[in-house]
Structures are given as structure tokens and as C-alpha cells.
Amino acid sequence: MKRTLSKKNAYVITIIGIIQFFIFTIIAMFFYPGGTREDSTTSGYSFFQNMFSDLGMTQAYSGISNLVSMWLFSISMGLVGASIIIFVVAFDNTLNTADKKGYISRFASFFGIIAGFCFIVVGFTPKDLEWANISHFVFQYVAFLAIILMGILYSISIFKDNALSVIYGFVFIACVLVQFVYILILYKIIPVNLIVDVTAQKIVVYAQILTFLIQSYGGLKKETIKTEKN
Q1: Is the whole-model pTM more than 0.85?
Q2: Which of 5, 43, 93, 155 could, after both became Cys, cross-link 172 (CB 3.0–4.6 A)?
Q3: 63-88, pLDDT tens digit by residue?
């Protein structure tokens, strides 16, 4: 009984962590002074010309201090990264209810934990600082690749063991497909301009956190039903 309640709490924490990311980053956008990587004269945050990581810079492209947005972004990334790790531990236990060996879900969870850790690092390595620039982008790339592998393996586990409805497996697949396209953009395999690049990043980030939100709901629903039966 205690383990079930613990998993329920973990899913609730993840949902809260996802929601705070939406709220904190939106607030951070209002505090961003201005400037994009192609035009330092723009005013404020442009949803289609400023990357999420622009919010985490100590100084905006306009040359003005960006400390308020930076801290809001760093805190939100730190919390969402921690939430993902908490989710992965709970989700692994939920899936292992059907598959006692849990080899597939174990590998998926391993990559999920890597992704969560990478998001935390990305949040606290402002890309405009020389010492943090390389780490910021390396961990960003690793996070996206880790989530792709996690999504593939979790979807296989769901389809194989029926621990959750197949709908949740298809949600992971949809997220993987979106991220795969963005990986091609990240590595310049698909050349795009700034607006397309920024828009693609917004889509993939929101797809990621929406996926975790949906999966947390699925896990919470399953554990709630299990508790009521007991």
C-alpha cells in the first residue's frame, strides 16, 4: 500500500513540476529585455525568434542584464528535470507490475534519468558565459537523444506488457517522431532559418513536457484505481 501511495505522490509531483515550467517560463518571457541572435535591437521576448535558452542568459542579446529571466528559467529547468527523474522512478515501477523482469522499462528509465539530469544542467549553464556554453549545448543534445531512446523503449514496454493503455504508447511514439525531426534541425541536416528553428524548438519542448504530463496522468490514474481496489 505504501509503495502505491508513493507512486501516486510521485506522479502528482511530476504534474506540478510540469505546470510550474509553463508558468515560470512564461513569466520569464515578460522579463526578458530584448534582442535575438540575429538582431540585438528588438524589444522584449519574441516567441518565434528567441530560443528558450535565451531566457537563461545572464545578459540578453540587447546587452541588458537578464538576471530575473535567468533565475526563473534556471529554477524552472531544475524543477522540471528533477520532476522527470521522480516520474521515471515511479513509471518504471508501474510498468514492472506487468513485467517482473522489466528489462525494457529499466533501460528506458535509465535514459529518462539521464534526460532529467541533463535538463537540470542546461538550466544552470547560461549559454552566454564562456565556461558554460559548451556544457549547455552538449547536455541539451544528450537530453533530446536520451528522451528519444526513452520514448521508444517505454512504448515497446507498454505495447508488450499492457501495463497501460496503448494510447500512452502512441503518445511516446508521437513525441519521438517530433524530436527526431528536431534532431535533424539541431545537427543542421535540415537547414532552416531562425524563425523555423525557434518554432521547432518550442514545439519539441512543449511536446516533451506534454508527454510527461500525459504519462503522469496515466500512471496516477492506474495507481488510483489500484488503491481503490485494495
Answers
A1: yes
A2: 155
A3: 999 999 999 999 999 999 999 999 99
